[in-house]
Amino acid sequence: MLRIGLTGGIGSGKSTVSRLLAERGAVVVDADAIAREVVEPGTVGLAAVVAAFGDGILAADGSLDRPALGAIVFADPDARGRLNAIVHPLVRDRAAELAAEVPDDGVVVHDVPLLVESGQAADRGGHAHDLVLVVETALDTRLERLVRRGMTEDDARARIAVQATDEERRAVADVVLDNSGTPEELAAQVDRFWAEHVAPRLG
Ligand code: ADP
């Protein structure tokens, strides 16, 4: 099995690359989706978050009140660290479980927006990924695309400001895709990536 770690800043086109890789036959394990799943009502994850932050972070229906929790951790790096210490291991375990279902001759793509921020890129000792693929796009283009998708420019800038920088992502990348061009140009780069880096390793 080939394990690819995929990351990119918000608005870079990471989700688009993830879809293109799925079309080529990769199994995508989506860290954001898992991060929601592990704190659904009735999970040990949600119980742990309530134990740490109180039931003020619960909505009336017993689900996680994300804005309430977000307000706490956005303002307080220690709180953010405590939350990550609960959620990250649960996400990693579930991602590993899903990846374990992929056959030996398959390709798994771990789609992890915060691969760099959560320290997983450095996890070479744990053999988390055989290859780290980074999607990079010029800042102005990312802002334009995020605004077109319905975000305000201030929100987009604020989100980008708390993420890793292009330099930090590039430092952990084995391969960088540049999505400053057209969707067709991006698809051509994904084809080239598959031909040069994926197909040869599948034997
Ligand atoms: P991310 O997952 O990195 O936040 P997405 O793949 O969702 O990024 O892309 C952000 C937005 O930009 C989406 O609305 C997407 O359709 C659009 N987009 C992605 N790549 C391109 C491109 N090459 N040209 C124009 N729009 C693009």
Shape: globular
Percent strand equals 5-15%
Order of helices and strands: EHEHHHHEEHHHEH
CATH homology group of the largest domain: P-loop containing nucleotide triphosphate hydrolases
Q: What is the name of the CATH topology of the largest domain?
A: Rossmann fold
Instruction: Label the CATH architecture of the largest domain.
Output: 3-Layer(aba) Sandwich
What count of domains describes the coordinates?
2
Task: Write a concise synopsis of the structure shown.
It is built from 9 helices and 5 strands; from the N terminus they run βαβααααββαααβα.
List the helices and strands and how they pair.
Layout: E1 2-8, H1 14-23, E2 27-30, H2 31-37, H3 44-53, H4 66-75, H5 77-100, E3 107-111, E4 131-136, H6 139-148, H7 153-161, H8 166-172, E5 175-178, H9 183-202
Helix pairs in contact: 3-5, 4-5
Bound molecules: adenosine-5'-diphosphate.
Adenosine-5'-diphosphate (ADP) binds at residues 8, 10-16, 145, 149, 179, 182-183, 186.
Describe the 3D structure.
The protein has a five-stranded parallel beta sheet with strand order 2-3-1-4-5, sandwiched between helices. The protein is of the alpha/beta class and 203 residues long. The model has no long low-confidence stretch (mean pLDDT 94). Helix 3 (44-53) packs antiparallel against helix 5 and helix 4 (66-75) packs across helix 5 (77-100). Helix content is 53%, strand content 13%. The longest helix has 24 residues, at 77-100. Bound molecules: adenosine-5'-diphosphate (ADP). The site of adenosine-5'-diphosphate has 14 residues, from helix 1 and helix 9.
